[in-house]
């Protein structure tokens, strides 16, 4: 059973996940899926699901296993993309966690780090992030250098800006084939919308 909790927006107020948008900015994804995105699934899948998420957000942690089930049910027919949208004002460790995920991504291990960060959401201090990088057997000299120099900060900021431009205000927010999805009544609605899109 998928529990519902209010999502959090960048002002710290409760919002339903996926419905935290600003109509003035529209409801379409402004930056289409591209080669630098972190993806699971075939490039030419007829359905692409994009999530804007925050590694310190409880609702995003709750969404992660739902997305995995979705990918299992529609194996080979859907592409999933995760973009960073750390809500710094309410989740002070989310930005650095996003940078750590990007560092891992630079060494081909974004998704294992993605899973570790959500599995250990209450433990995202710098030394703990360092430990996860060691667990994934990253090149630690490279990891330390890139974290110290904030090599991937600009990429994270670009994710955030593309989310804002698309009307994202809370996490998680999902876009299916470029259109925002209202999951305020539960994340299980994604199974219906994906199934309907594949049936077209």
Taking pLDDT < 50 over at least 5 consecutive residues as the criterion, the unreliable ranges are 1-8, 10-26
| CATH fold-level label | Glutaredoxin
Instruction: Tell me what portion of residues adopts beta-strand conformation.
Output: 15-25%
In spatial order, strands of the major sheet run 3-5-4-7-8
CATH architecture classification: 3-Layer(aba) Sandwich
Q: On the 0-100 scale, what is the average pLDDT?
A: 89
Question: Can you offer a commentary on this structure?
Answer:
The chain has 200 residues and is of the alpha+beta class. The protein has a single domain (7-199), classed as Glutaredoxin, CATH 3.40.30.10. The protein is built from 7 helices and 8 strands. It has helices at residues 58-73, 94-106, 110-119, 126-135, 140-148, 153-165, 189-199, and strands at residues 7-9, 14-15, 38-40, 47-53, 78-84, 170-171, 173-176, 179-180. The strands form 2 sheets. Strands 3-5-4-7-8 form a 5-stranded mixed sheet, with helices on both faces. The protein has a 3-stranded antiparallel sheet with strand order 2-1-6. Strand 4, helix 1 (58-73) and strand 5 (78-84) form a beta-alpha-beta unit. The chain is globular and about 50 Å long. The two termini are 28 Å apart. Mean pLDDT is 89; it is low at 1-8 and 10-26.
């Amino acid at each position: 059973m998928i529990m519902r909790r209010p999502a959090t927006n960048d002002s710290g107020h409760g919002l339903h996940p996926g419905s935290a948008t600003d109509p003035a900015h529209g409801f379409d994804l402004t930056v289409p899926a591209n080669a630098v995105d972190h993806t699971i699934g075939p490039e030419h899948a007829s359905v692409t699901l994009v999530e804007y998420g925050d590694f310190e957000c409880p609702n995003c942690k709750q969404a992660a296993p739902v997305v995995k089930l979705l990918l299992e049910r529609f194996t080979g027919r859907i592409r999933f993309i995760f973009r960073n949208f750390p809500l710094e004002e309410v989740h002070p460790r989310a930005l650095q966690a996003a940078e750590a995920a990007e560092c891992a991504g630079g060494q081909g291990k974004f998704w294992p780090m993605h899973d570790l960060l959500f599995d250990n959401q209450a433990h995202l201090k710098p030394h703990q992030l360092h430990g996860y990088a060691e667990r994934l057997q990253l090149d630690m000299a490279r990891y330390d250098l890139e974290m110290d120099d904030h090599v991937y900060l600009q990429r994270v900021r670009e994710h955030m800006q593309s989310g804002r431009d698309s009307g994202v205000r809370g996490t998680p927010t999902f876009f299916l084939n470029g259109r925002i999805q209202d999951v305020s009544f539960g994340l299980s609605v994604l199974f219906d919308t994906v199934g309907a899109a594949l049936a077209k």
